[in-house]
Design goal:
60s Ribosomal Protein L30, Chain: A; single chain
Length: 195
């Protein structure tokens, strides 16, 4: 009789503890530098961007630091700095010492071409919410921008954009793929003639 009551009770208690005791909290969205404090609290929008369709982020626009920057006036050269992408640790926007040489190469390219500008695209792996990854991608791009400004590049030549998890380099679902996707890509911009 005791065994008939003991095992169902212990099983029910274990299920209850597992479902309530180990809840993971969604990380808070970090405010972006350009976002107004106390601004739009609608969870379906991201500061400086278009509303997220249906609140799920599918097909949403990248988060741009400067809405006044007109990309249509620039030719994009994705090959010039493709080898200089930098990568980040999980949930981090801290630039690693091992990526300093890549940033120095980007700075040297900009110093050798005074007419060029730069777009830094911040990217994340697939884990985390759409909103959190947009914010983290922007923080990663901003970290690279600040580092380049520290190397002598004027801030008005460097622009940032976050793609969150929308542009994976590797579509796998393991750490090997995720480590490739946590990155900043650098796009050299040349002014279009007549623009």
């Amino acid at each position: 009789m005791m065994n008939k009551l003991f095992f169902p009770t212990v099983t029910a208690l274990a299920v209850l503890m597992a479902s309530t005791g180990c809840r993971h909290r969604t990380p808070p969205i970090t405010p972006l530098p350009a976002a107004p404090i106390g601004g739009d609290q609608n969870p379906n929008t991201i500061p400086n961007s278009q509303p997220l369709p249906n609140g799920n982020g599918v097909g949403s626009q990248p988060l741009a630091e400067d809405n006044n920057f007109d990309m249509s006036k620039w030719n994009q050269d994705r090959d010039a700095l493709a080898a200089n992408s930098i990568h980040f640790a999980f949930d981090s926007a801290v630039i690693r010492d091992s990526d300093t040489a890549n940033l120095q190469a980007v700075a040297a390219k900009l110093q050798s071409d005074a007419s060029a500008n730069l777009m830094i695209e911040g990217d994340c792996d697939e884990r985390g919410t759409e909103e959190y990854n947009r914010s983290l991608g922007e923080r990663r791009a901003e970290a690279a921008r600040e580092a380049l400004v520290g190397m002598g590049i004027t801030a008005d030549r460097v622009h940032t954009m976050s793609y969150g998890k929308d542009k994976p380099e590797d579509t796998g679902h393991d750490e090997a793929a995720w480590s490739k996707n946590r990155r900043d890509d650098f796009v050299l911009l040349h002014p279009k003639t007549g623009a």
